[in-house]
Amino acid sequence: MVKEIVSSAEENMKKSVDVVRKEFASLRAGRATPALLDKIVVSYYGTPTPLNQMANISVPEARMLVIQPWDKSATPEIERAILKSDVGITPSSDGTVIRLTIPQLTQERRTELVKVIKKKAEEGRVAIRNIRRDINDNLKAKQKDGVPEDDVKRAQDDLQKTTDKYIKEIDELVKLKEQEIMQV
Questions:
Q1: How much of the chain is in helix, strand and coil states, percent to nearest 5?
Q2: Consecutive sets of 10 residues in the chain, 184 residues long: mean pLDDT of each?
Q3: Which one-letter DSSP state was computed for residue 27?
Q4: Is 161 left (phi over 0), alpha (psi -120 to 50) or beta?
Q5: Which CATH code of 1.20.140.10, 1.10.132.20, 2.60.40.2970, 3.40.50.10190 fits the domain covering 2-25+106-182?
Q6: DSSP class of residue 104?
Q7: Do the Cβ atoms of 63 and 89 come closer than 8 Å?
Q8: Which of 167, 60, 80, 85 is nearest to 122 (CA)?
Q9: Where is the Ribosome recycling factor domain positioned along the sequence (predicted)?
């Protein structure tokens, strides 16, 4: 019973790390990646539709994305959605495909992105610590309900090791993303 509580905490911590990983993927690091467009939603015949569900997104060059809409009539709406988004890239279209050329990052923008990464990583760490706190409270309540103190202590130790493991994983993600951004 106590082990199940700790394993559910581990599942939630994994999800927190995955959220941080997805947030990092959507940040522009000077290199083209289809993940940059994951958050873009296009008004397609009045229905908000994710861009990746209505077009093929490819990376022909290191700093270029090509979007091929399956429905050519949606091209102007896709352009509008990209312009409204926080991607910060102006699309160029020839009527059938949309090209996004990713500009070289300035040093100022790189340091700004590193700050954003560290902020998002801290949010992930806080989420993991909140999970730990909630589970610790749950374990203390179980102890009051008659679960042996040794089992609770062992579970708390396991929980702390799990917390440390996932916080370390976030720290490694930060280090990798920071290197990727600062690479000229």
A1: 65, 15, 20
A2: 84 91 76 79 88 88 87 88 81 87 81 87 94 91 87 90 94 89 73
A3: S
A4: alpha
A5: 1.10.132.20
A6: P
A7: no
A8: 167
A9: 21-182
Rounded Cα–Cα distance for residues 21 and 65 (Å)? 21
Looking up tokens 């312009």, which residue turns up? 83
Domain ranges of the chain: 2-25+106-182, 34-101
C-alpha closest to that of 154 among 139, 132, 164: 139
Angstrom distances, CA of residue 37 to CA of 12, 102, 122, 163 = 26, 12, 24, 31
pLDDT digits (tens, 9 = 90+) for 125-148: 999 999 999 999 988 888 888 888
Q: How large is the C-alpha radius of gyration of the chain?
A: 22
Q: How long a stretch of residues is the chain?
A: 184
Which residues, including other chains, have CB under 8 Å from residue 165's CB and lie 6 or more apart? none
